[in-house]
Structures are given as C-alpha cells and as structure tokens.
Amino acid sequence: MKRMIVVRHSIKWPNANREEWYIPLSLKGILLALKTGRQLRNPHHFSLAIVSPTIRTILTVILMMVGMRKAIPCKIKPAVSTPWFRRWKSICDQVKSLADTERITLAASLKETDSRLYHDELKRLEKFYKRIFSRLNEGQTALLVGHRPFIEMAVAGLTGQKPEAVPALAECGGYILTLANDGKFTAERFSNKGP
Predict the structure, then answer these.
(1) Are 106 and 96 a contacting pair, CB within 8 Å?
(2) Model pTM?
(3) FRET pair for 70, CA 20 to 30 Å: which of 13, 48, 91, 106?
(4) Chain-centre distance of CA 143, in angstroms?
(5) What integer pLDDT is reported at residue 20 of this predicted model?
(6) How far apart are CA 4 and CA 176, in angstroms?
(7) 3-state class of 69 per DSSP?
(8) Helical packing angle, 106-113 and 85-102, nearest 10°
(9) CA distance between the termini of the chain
(10) Alpha helices (H) in the chain, listed in sequence order
C-alpha cells in the first residue's frame, strides 16, 4: 500500500490586499498549521512533501513540519494548483456565493459552470496524483498541501465519486488517499477543528 495525505492550506490572512499567490497565513492559520503537524506527527512517516507555489501553502507545509518536529524533503509544484488560475479564479468568484447558499461543493458548481475546463482539470489532476503515487515505494507516504476545489476534484476522480459527493474541505482539513495493491484508490477524510 502507498498513501498520500492531501491537506488544504491553513487559514489565510483576511482581506489581504495582495495578488492571490502572495496572501500569507493569519495568526489562527499559523496555529492551525502547527496543530495539524502535531496531529500527523505520530501516525505517519512522510517520504516527500509536495506543495503549491503560493505563500500560504508553503507556510502551511513549513509550519506542519515544525509541528511534526521533522523535516521532509519538499518540492514546490505548480501542478498542485492549475495552469489556468485566472480563469478558475473568475469562475470561482462567480459560483462561490451559489455554492455557499445552496450548500453544494465548489467543485460541483464549477462543473456546471464550465464543464470542459472541469473535465480537463480532472484528467490533469488524476494524472498528477497518480504520478506522485508511482514515485512512492511500497509502504511510503507523501504529503501534499494544496487548494480547494482541486483536492476535492482529485479525490472524486481517483475514487470514482461524483464531485458533489466529496465534501468541501475546511482549512487544514484533508484526505488520506490510499492506493491498494489492486490499483484501487480509497479516501478517508480527516479534519482539524482549529487551534
């Protein structure tokens, strides 16, 4: 068996007047990332960490390692997020209020808004996650810190679920993805209730 713990970044600084890539963590976000690292310290031994190139994801993984009291080889990979970021951002801004008021996931809202982009991203994310698993040896675990809705989309795609069946993640929430010897993926959700 191979595993990957996939975690959404921690709480970002509210109303940061910055480009999306440069938004840092809030004080609560710093404390939550440390707590998440402490929670993951004992049950998991990570061989590799993969992180999106945004400031908040990089700070999240660094603080998680501090909480774990362990340094993990870390790679910054733009593929954790999306090459069409500005297009996704404008779609997310359009559907976010719909997703919040209708209690449907952001991924499901995006699928309805731009089905072609959604399916292209889903294929790209599945391929990216499978490539990470292919680089793990039997029994190894990777840590990935990224963003919603991309985590939820990848989980849905790998496990064969519909996007609306995969619950949206809170900050520092995530999934334990397992690749069994038969080639099937399973996902177990975990959450972190805050500092």
Answers:
(1) yes
(2) 0.87
(3) 13
(4) 10
(5) 74
(6) 6
(7) coil
(8) 120
(9) 32
(10) 27-41, 55-68, 85-102, 106-113, 115-135, 150-159
How far is Cα 101 from Cα 23, in angstroms, rounded to an integer? 25
Task: Output the six-digit token pair for 127.
Answer: 């391929």
Give the pLDDT of residue 176: 95
Handedness of CA 105, 110, 113, 119 (dihedral sign): negative
Closest CA to 155 of 94, 108, 93, 85: 108
Is residue 80 within 8 Å of 57, Cβ to Cβ? yes
CATH 3.40.50.1240 fits 10-147+159-190, yes or no: yes
Q: What is the pLDDT of residue 103?
A: 45
What residues contact 175, with CB distance under 8 A and at least 6 apart?
A: 5, 6, 151, 155, 169, 187, 188, 189, 190
Q: Are 157 and 145 in contact (CB under 8 A)?
A: no
Quick count: other Cβ atoms within 10 Å of Cβ 47?
Answer: 16
**Rg of the chain (C-alpha set):** 16
Name the stretches of the chain with pLDDT < 50: 99-103
